[in-house]
């Protein structure tokens, strides 16, 4: 028995009794023993999920699907993906001898720190969703992230499940020579486009530097591409999704029809990666369908609050996420107000320049009446909108409570966009405001 | 009257929202009734740099920077000619570095720069970068004011004869030498992203004036309503304890 492990488990028990979750136990664990995470005897299946967008959704979908297959699964379902969150997850699911009491662990890991914990977690599967520009001040540059992940996977012999439609992600297949590589890919569908104004990374072949040729784009730089010179991008998908029907929220894979939880292209990509994991384990893919059908998105992902009129809140962290949320908002054809909370705390990224890489001109629609700018960098947001000709519709209300209250008293449907550290405080305010 | 901007390698050197700078220049010119053309020029494209009033080059990651390098060097004589013909230059981060003597990357490889100026840049290792909000005081064409931005660079630029500004908060050209960027009558080169121009409308207007000077001489610009711009800048200056 390890006294430190016991203390951490005890701390968790006390906190849960007091109705408080959080990753304090893990913080304590890592402080008491910096090799804490390495000590666990991991279950026979360990799936690490990393990437820029969709980690929490994807890892929850994988965990639920494995449960539907009959496995006992642990996962950090709330997206506590730094080492303290992971330490908490392992400690509370372990016996006194560091044995994890589960058949499978699905662990979402922050893409910037995954290189530190990768080997310690003894993974059998690595799933990479996508790589977009995100919080670059924390990351340095995307190149660094990719290289570090390449460094820790060069001797990895397990399964690597990669988004075959993302040139940044595909680079891992070039270096992880010992792993079993599986690609997931989504066919051309009604939203696919010949050209794009969204792609910022991955325009050039990582092998030779020549421009990549795209057959079609799905969103951002995700799509079907190839380097005409050296064939980079030529893949044989392990999971290939076809026939997306956005109206009925269905898609087809291996001759079977699946249902998605939301009619967006990125959700279909998330589902594809889940199917790839099941396939490596020789499980019936249809086990995932019930999960996809009934999956409820996590907090702040299209979450509705009943103010005087419905208010839908979405988390945004980077230009790609913001573009997709804006596409969704402008597809809702009714008069509405918007409120954007822009923060620049540690977890948001201190650099808010990403708002200039996102397509805020899309908000220039007649049925968007007023755009309230709030948060620590409210004026930066207002300034961004001013340069899209939205000057007359901007209203800066720095205080979050006042901003939400203003939305409520307008008696008009509304959409809220919030960066990471604004999300939970704003949700709490929305909950209160809905009860007024 | 019109303003012609050449935006170099827009598809490669466009980190950290630098494209916002061209949007600001265009809008601020057009609000004064000056029509503004923004043309782009990427690898292999034929454009006569001398046809333009302003040459704009943003920052890129090391990999992108290495991709454009040969193409840029091939245009050296044309850039020199444009400089002789009083074209204005706005260079951010990687663009700034490439106009100096050389750039030594993280692995110790030395790339010769265009060599127009005597400064040179040496990169630190991957884990040490100058990252964060920055405030500087600058004097541009006789006017002294404060500017804010966001720096994110590993390169340490040394031997700068005429810096763009004095660092009030943040790093600047190196971790701690207290100066930021390079500037002369024609060229403004800086590590400041943010992007630079939206929150610093005075810099934007000086750049517009410098560019117009090439064909029209000194042009007075009518003042614009910069309430939001000034608020956004003041919020940051105050936070960095650099406000007046």
Describe this structure in words.
The complex is a heterodimer of chains A (436) and B (244). Chain A starts with a helix and ends with a helix. Chain A is built from 14 helices and 17 strands. Chain A has three domains: 1-42 and 65-111, no CATH class; 124-295, Mur-like, catalytic domain (UDP-N-acetylmuramoyl-L-alanine:D-glutamate ligase), CATH 3.40.1190; 301-435, Mur ligase, C-terminal domain (Protein-Tyrosine Phosphatase, Chain A), CATH 3.90.190. With 436 residues, chain A is an alpha/beta fold. In chain A, helix 1 runs antiparallel to helix 2 and helix 3 (55-68) packs across helix 10 (287-294). In chain A, strand 10 and strand 11 (256-259) form a beta hairpin. Chain A has helices at 3-17, 24-32, 55-68, 83-92, 114-117, 136-139, 142-153, 167-175, 265-280, 287-294, 319-330, 378-386, 400-409, 420-435; strands at residues 45-50, 73-75, 104-108, 125-128, 159-163, 180-186, 213-219, 222-226, 239-245, 250-253, 256-259, 301-306, 310-315, 336-341, 368-374, 394-396, 414-418. By secondary structure, chain B is an alpha/beta fold. Chain B has one domain (2-239): Rossmann fold (3-Layer(aba) Sandwich), CATH 3.40.50.880. Chain B is 28% helix and 30% strand. Chain B is built from six helices and 14 strands. In chain B, strands 2-1-3-4-14-13 form a six-stranded mixed β-sheet. In chain B, helix 1 links the parallel strand 1 (2-8) and strand 2 (35-41). Chain B is globular and about 50 Å long. In chain B, 50% of the residues are buried. The model of chain B has no long low-confidence stretch (mean pLDDT 94). At the A-B interface, helix 7 and helix 12 of A face helix 1, helix 2, strand 8 and helix 6 of B.
């Amino acid at each position: 028995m390890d006294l430190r492990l016991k203390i951490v488990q005890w701390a968790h028990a006390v906190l849960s009794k007091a109705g408080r979750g959080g990753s304090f136990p893990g913080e304590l664990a890592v402080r008491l023993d910096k090799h804490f995470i390495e000590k666990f005897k991991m279950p026979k299946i360990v799936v690490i999920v990393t990437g820029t967008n969709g980690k929490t959704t994807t890892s929850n979908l994988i965990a639920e699907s494995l449960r539907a297959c009959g496995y006992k699964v642990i996962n950090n379902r709330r997206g506590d993906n730094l080492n303290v969150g992971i330490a908490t997850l392992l400690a509370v699911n372990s016996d006194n001898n560091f044995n994890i009491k589960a058949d499978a662990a699905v662990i979402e890991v922050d893409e910037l720190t995954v290189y530190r914990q990768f080997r310690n977690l003894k993974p059998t599967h690595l799933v990479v969703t996508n790589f977009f520009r995100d919080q670059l001040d924390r990351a340095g540059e995307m190149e660094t992230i990719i290289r570090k992940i390449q460094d820790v996977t060069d001797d990895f012999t397990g399964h690597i499940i990669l988004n075959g439609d993302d040139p940044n992600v595909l680079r891992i297949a070039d270096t992880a020579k010992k792993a079993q590589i599986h690609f997931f890919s989504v066919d051309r569908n009604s939203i696919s486009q010949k050209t794009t104004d969204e792609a910022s990374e991955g325009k050039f072949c990582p092998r030779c530097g020549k421009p990549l040729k795209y057959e079609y784009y799905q969103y951002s730089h995700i799509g079907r591409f190839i380097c005409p010179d050296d064939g980079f991008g030529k893949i044989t998908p392990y999971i290939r999704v076809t026939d997306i029907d956005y109206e009925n929220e269905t898609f087809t894979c291996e001759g079977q029809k699946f249902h998605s939880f939301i009619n967006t292209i990125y959700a279909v990509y998330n589902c594809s990666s889940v199917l790839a994991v099941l396939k490596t384990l020789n499980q019936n893919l249809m086990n995932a369908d019930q999960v996809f059908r009934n999956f409820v998105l996590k907090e702040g992902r299209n979450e509705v609050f009943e103010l005087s009129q419905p208010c839908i809140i979405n988390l945004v962290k980077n230009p790609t996420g913001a573009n997709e949320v804006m596409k969704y908002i402008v597809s809702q054809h009714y008069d509405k107000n918007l409120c954007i909370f822009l923060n620049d705390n540690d977890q948001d990224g201190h650099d808010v320049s990403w708002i200039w890489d996102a397509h805020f001109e899309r908000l220039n629609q007649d049925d968007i009446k007023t755009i309230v700018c709030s948060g620590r960098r409210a004026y930066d947001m207002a300034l961004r909108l001013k340069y899209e000709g939205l000057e007359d519709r901007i209203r800066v209300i720095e205080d979050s409570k006042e901003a939400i209250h203003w939305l409520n008293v307008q008696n008009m449907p509304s959409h809220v966009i919030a960066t990471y550290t604004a999300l939970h405080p704003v949700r709490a305010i929305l909950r209160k405001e809905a009860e007024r | 009257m019109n303003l012609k901007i050449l935006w170099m390698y827009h598809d490669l050197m466009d980190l950290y929202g630098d494209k916002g700078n061209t949007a600001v220049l265009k809008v601020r010119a057009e609000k004064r009734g000056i029509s503004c053309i923004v043309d782009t020029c990427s690898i292999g494209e034929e454009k006569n740099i001398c046809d333009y009033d302003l040459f704009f080059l943003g920052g890129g990651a090391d990999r992108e920077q290495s991709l454009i390098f040969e193409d840029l060097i091939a245009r050296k004589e044309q850039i020199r000619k444009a400089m002789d013909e009083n074209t204005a230059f706005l260079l951010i981060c990687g663009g700034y570095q490439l106009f100096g003597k050389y750039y030594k990357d993280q692995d110790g490889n030395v790339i010769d720069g265009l060599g127009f100026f005597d400064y040179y840049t040496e990169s630190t290792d991957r884990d040490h970068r100058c990252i964060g909000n920055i405030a500087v005081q600058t004097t541009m064409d006789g006017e002294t004011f404060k500017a804010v931005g966001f720096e994110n660079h590993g390169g340490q630029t040394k031997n700068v004869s005429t810096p763009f500004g004095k660092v009030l908060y943040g790093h600047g050209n190196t971790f701690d030498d207290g100066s930021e960027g390079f500037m002369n009558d024609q060229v403004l080169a800086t590590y400041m992203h943010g992007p630079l121009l939206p929150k610093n409308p005075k810099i934007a207007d000086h750049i517009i004036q410098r560019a117009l000077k090439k064909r029209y001489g000194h042009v007075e610009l009518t003042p614009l309503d910069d309430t939001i711009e000034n608020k956004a800048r003041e919020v940051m200056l105050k936070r960095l304890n650099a406000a007046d």
